Amino acid sequence: MYQQIVILTGAGISAESGINTFRDQDGLWEEHKIEDVATPEGYARNPVMVEAFYNARIAQLHDGKVTPNKGHHALVKLEQEFNGELLIVTQNIDDLHERAGSRRLLHMHGELFKSRCPQSQQTFMLQDTFGPEHTCTCCIPAQRLRPHVVWFGEIPIGLDRIQDALDSCDLFIAIGTSGTVYPAAGFVDTANYHGAQTIEVNLAEADRHSKFQYHVQGKASQRLPDLVNHILQGRKVSDLSCAVTDNLIGKGDI
Ligand code: BV8
């Protein structure tokens, strides 16, 4: 039985809820240049365009059709029934994990429904959308509130807490992430270094040079319920026939 589990989620776990990923077809980065909408420089150059980018994502999340999927709910079941320690680190800024019921959750790239004062760094629950009329209540003169989101070049949130959890976990699971963005993409190295078992759940086949010991291919909503039950039965992912070796890539038959 595992004692400490760290889970990293990316845009892929929200994809089946109807939220575009970043780098898949019709992804968010296809329509926008990263440097224009997800960097402090881009925001300084054109805050109106960046606010429109985030306001569009807020509107999508307010759409009643976007709800947590079976992948989110499987992680809630694991959190509620697993006897050891568990931490979900999400790169996502949506609130689908919370709406599904996850509590031991850390948004390392910020949260869409929070704004931040650029001067005091105080965060506020977003009342509406972003715009020049939405200013802070902590400064004089009031400052234009920015998205409480970690842009490229900014330091992610909670890195010390994440590092501590990775140093002592015995299972690291990455779900629906392309492993493109650091430091999140390097978490698997830390987990491997400390002797944890490492497994990734992804729609795509395992990369030949994957750093994960195990790979389950498929949709998170379809694969996670079985993986969670496997773990809750006290079994190890090494029991699964999905080892990633130099010449064999498992198909993740759980
Ligand atoms: C930092 C918030 C310093 C905004 C985001 C050169 C080399 C290496 C690194 C760098 C470099 N130059 C610069 C860097 C650092 C840089 C970086 O990594 N750049 C990359 C592009 C090379 N990183 C930073 O700047 C970070 N800060 O380094 O600060 C520092 C650090 C530590 C200590 C001191 C100083 C800050 C990065 C944060 C940027 N902000 N988001 C917003 O959301 O609008 S990143 C953005 O990408 C999102 O957070 C997103 O979550 C994240 C990662 O993307 P994914 O989640 O993986 O999504 P993606 O579309 O890529 O992939 C989806 C996956 O799901 C695919 O694999 C697909 O197959 C799979 N999938 C699809 N459907 C399903 C599925 N899987 C399962 N089921 C499905 N149904």
What key phrases describe this protein's structure?
alpha/beta; six-stranded parallel beta sheet; 254 residues; 10 helices; 9 strands; 17% strand; elongated; binds ligand BV8
Helices, strands, pairings?
Elements: E1 4-9, H1 11-15, H2 28-31, H3 34-37, H4 40-45, H5 47-62, H6 70-81, E2 85-90, H7 96-100, E3 105-107, E4 110-116, E5 123-125, E6 146-149, H8 159-168, E7 171-175, H9 187-193, E8 197-202, E9 214-217, H10 220-232
Parallel strand pairs: 1-2, 1-7, 2-3, 7-8, 8-9
Antiparallel strand pairs: 4-5, 4-6
Helix pairs in contact: 6-10
Bound molecules: ligand BV8.
Question: In words, what does this structure look like?
Answer:
This protein has helices at 11-15, 28-31, 34-37, 40-45, 47-62, 70-81, 96-100, 159-168, 187-193, 220-232; strands at residues 4-9, 85-90, 105-107, 110-116, 123-125, 146-149, 171-175, 197-202, 214-217. With 254 residues, it is an alpha/beta fold. Strand 2, helix 7 (96-100) and strand 3 form a beta-alpha-beta unit. The longest helix is centred in the N-terminal third of the chain and has 16 residues, at 47-62. The protein is elongated and about 60 Å long. The chain starts with a strand and ends in a 22-residue tail after the last helix. Mean pLDDT is 91; it is low at 245-253. The structure holds ligand BV8. Ligand BV8 binds next to helix 1.
Question: How would the global form be characterised?
Answer: elongated
Instruction: Give the SSE string.
Output: EHHHHHHEHEEEEHEHEEH
Q: What is the C-alpha radius of gyration, as a whole number of Å?
A: 19 Å
Assembly level: single chain
Helix content: 25-40%
Determine the N-to-C terminus distance: 17 Å
Q: If helices are DSSP runs of H or I spanning 4 or more residues, what is the number of helices?
A: 10
State mean pLDDT (0 to 100 scale): 91
